[in-house]
Amino acid sequence: MTDKTTTADNIARVLAAAVAADPTRPLLTWYDDATGDRTELSGATLANWVAKTGNLLVDSAGLAPGDRAGALLPPHWQSAAVLLGCWSAGLAVHGAGLAVPAAGAASDSPEPPRPVDVLFVAADRLDTASAWSAGDRYALALAPMAAPLRTLPPGFADYVVQVRGHGDHFTPQPGGGPQDADLTGLAARSAATLGITAGARVLIDAATHPDPVDWLLAPLVAGASVVLCGNLDRARLAGRLASERVTLDLS
Fold first, then answer.
1. In what order do the strands lie in the sheet with 201-205?
2. Half-sphere exposure in the Cβ direction for 197 (13 Å, CA)
3. Which end of the chain is more exposed for a tag (fewer CB within 10 A), N or C?
């Protein structure tokens, strides 16, 4: 018998439940209208990236539940893999637009209250990374087709290069991480406020909803799938709503 309360309070189990409903259905579709990029991830594919990220954190970075990750990342499908991988490994995540970066501690500051054990940084945010005291550092190009960085900044490893060498299976921290209960609670309230329901196909403007509680966790908790749009070109919106069979427009 499934413990629904435990499942609802555990981000890794929420993801597993979303994938199990239909591993082949599109769970997260990413558009960047500035580059023309469209990337569609089924539940199985997203779970694979999350598993590889969890293994990267544990096997390469040597991290343990309760350790701290920094994420200077915008809404993006690779950001989803990083965040879900961190939470699956039981880490506390700071940054990434999170309104609640630590369990029970609200903060809008981009700076962590103390050093982090691992830091993930988008290529266009490297200038802010020097303010963060961190152990291992990974840079992300966030380029179409998950292309690596053309030039690797000193002191950083390339996330997409490193993560691909890790295993496809990862056992999440059974009890979840220090943020799980707070974040899933926020996500459930966000889903109710935004009108996200089970089975919905939700288009989300990344500029309007930059907090991953809204663009990532709320749809997962509700059992919905996401069409996440960066640099949204509103001239393309009507066609996209139709082609992606969107049932809820949050643009």
1. 37-42, 26-32, 225-230, 201-205, 248-250
2. 3
3. N
Tens digits of per-residue pLDDT, 141-164? 999 999 999 999 999 999 999 999
Burial of 136 (0-12, 13-18, 19+ CB in 10 A): buried
Give me Rg for the CA atoms of the chain. Answer: 17
Residue that the structure tokens 């960047």 belong to: 32
* DSSP code at position 241: H
> pTM for the full model?
0.93
**32 backbone dihedrals φ, ψ, rounded to 5°:** -125, 105
Q: Is residue 46 over pLDDT 50?
A: yes
Cα distances (angstroms) measured from residue 182 to each of 93, 102, 174, 178: 12, 9, 17, 8
Angle 92-251-242 (CA atoms, 0-180°, nearest 5)? 115
Q: What is the pLDDT of residues 5-39, one digit of tens each?
A: 346 789 999 999 999 999 999 999 999 999 999 99
Task: Give the whole-number percent of the chain exceeding pLDDT 90.
Answer: 86
Which residues have CB under 8 Å from 108's CB, separation 6+? 99
Residue type, 163: V
Which residues are paired to 116 by β-bridges? 134
